[in-house]
Amino acid sequence: MSSQYAKVQSGAPYYFVPGPSRWPLLASVALLVTMAGASAWVNDLPWGAYVNIAGVLMVIAVLYKWFGDTIAESEGGLYSQRIDTSFRWSMSWFIFSEVMFFAAFFGALFYARSITMPWLGDLDHKLLWPDFSAHWGNTGPAGTVEPFQAMGPFPIPTINTALLLTSGVTITIAHHAIRAGERTKTALWLFATILLGATFIGFQAYEYMHAYSELNLKLTSGIYGSTFFLLTGFHGFHVTVGAIMLSVVLYRVLKGHFTPQQHFAFEGAAWYWHFVDVVWLGLYVVIYWL
């Protein structure tokens, strides 16, 4: 590893450009199959689910091989400091795109709650919907939504907040450990982070079952239900992706990859995990408390 790192740090006067790759084309085909299957599935076509699952498996296979090539190039000492800088910029812009993704859903929640709801409850609209109550968690102006109970912050959302905040601490400890060259300590704290993330997902799954079975809160429960499940569901998906990223990093740590000076894959996954933590804090306040 030291010789590889020396090669990376030698300041090679070139920017590594990989040869022609089939992975971008195969990734496009896999995504096309995935979305075609999803579209057919939501329209109740019998073959939609099978095509969607096949597409997802294709995406996983392509990502596995594509990232495998990238890891082999990195471990082979082909990446200079310029490549490292490119990766950092790429990850930064990717996380920014995720910020905009969640900003759109937060914006939809703000519009529905702070603009549309008071507008529907004003005096002019009382003639159309006299029974409509302009409080968040309502059943809609026409009363077409089944009665439900809103989700409160206790106990599961608060427990999940503590889990994610703790995971932010454990991943930071792991980062300091890898910078200090303490591989065993890095692996242990990485594993702790992954375990906390998995526990979060388990609690969220239980929360969803509780919402459907006991609160009658569903995705179809008006604008409250749709915004609740879209925001928390997409966040749970991002926690899952982050845990997978950290699991791959943990595997690489155990395989002897990375050095105290060269470990961007770890840092990129850690950035993503901290982003997931910050988004959850916003969700916890806006969804469960306000």
Structural features, described:
- With about 290 residues, this protein is an all-alpha fold.
- It has 2 domains: about 15-80, Helix Hairpins, CATH 1.10.287.70; about 85-290, Cytochrome c oxidase, subunit III, four-helix bundle (Four Helix Bundle (Hemerythrin (Met), subunit A)).
- About 75% of the residues lie in helices and about 0% in strands.
- It has 9 helices and no strands.
- The chain has helices at about 1-10, 25-40, 50-75, 80-120, 125, 155-180, 185-215, 220-255, 265-290.
Topology:
Layout: H1 2-9, H2 23-42, H3 48-75, H4 81-120, H5 123-126, H6 156-179, H7 183-213, H8 222-254, H9 264-289
For the residues shown, what is the average pLDDT? 90
What is the overall shape? globular
Helix proportion range: over 70%
Alpha carbon gap, first and last residue? 52 Å
Tally of individual domains: 2
Give helix and strand order, one letter per element, not per position: HHHHHHHHH
Which architecture of the largest domain does the CATH hierarchy give at level 2? Up-down Bundle
Number of strand segments: 0
The CATH H-level homologous superfamily of the largest domain: Cytochrome c oxidase, subunit III, four-helix bundle
- Residue stretches low in confidence (pLDDT < 50, at least 5 long) are 1-10
Given the helix and strand composition, which structural class is it?
mainly alpha
Helices, by number, come to 9
The CATH class of the largest domain is Mainly Alpha
What would the CATH topology of the largest domain be? Four Helix Bundle (Hemerythrin (Met), subunit A)
Beta-strand proportion: under 5%
Rounded to an integer in angstroms, the radius of gyration calculated over CA atoms is: 23 Å
